[in-house]
DNA sequence: TTTCTCACA
DNA sequence: TGTGAGGA
């Protein structure tokens, strides 16, 4: 794993930062956690600490939901993203492209390019 | 002051 | 999901 990816995985962001970055409410962010969509770490006084990866996962969830997807679907997609990233050891941005391709299909929008299907 | 958990109208 | 209580 590259140093860049390690930094992206460092959970150092407090709720306030995540809220500013995602435009979600603290309530929603915590709720998504119960839905297994993100897995922030706990530090000092039981406070959640998010990583940059968590943040853009939250952003993906946000517009995924805005595109009409339900939680069950989002959970499958985020789980698949992790599986793909882990299995193929690909970059996060690559895994994100795969995820976006799926979201568009499931949202009944544009189908994924044939070049991306090989990754699904 | 910020975030946490729990519970409810 | 929003909001308020009661703590840390």
UniProtKB/TrEMBL annotation:
Supply the InterPro entries for this chain. DNA-bd_dom_put_sf, MerR-type_HTH_dom, MerR_fam
Q: Does the keyword Cell cycle apply?
A: no
Q: Which GO terms describe its molecular function?
A: DNA binding; DNA-binding transcription factor activity
Does the entry feature the keyword Plastid, yes or no? Answer: no
What's the superkingdom here? Bacteria
Cite the entry's keywords alphabetically. Answer: DNA-binding, Repressor, Transcription, Transcription regulation
Looking at the record, the residues that make up the HTH merR-type domain are 12-80
Kindly indicate where the leader peptide sits in this chain: none
Q: Which PANTHER family match?
A: HTH-TYPE TRANSCRIPTIONAL REGULATOR TNRA, REDOX-CYCLING DRUG-SENSING TRANSCRIPTIONAL ACTIVATOR SOXR
By what name is this protein known? MerR family transcriptional regulator
Species of the source: Furfurilactobacillus siliginis
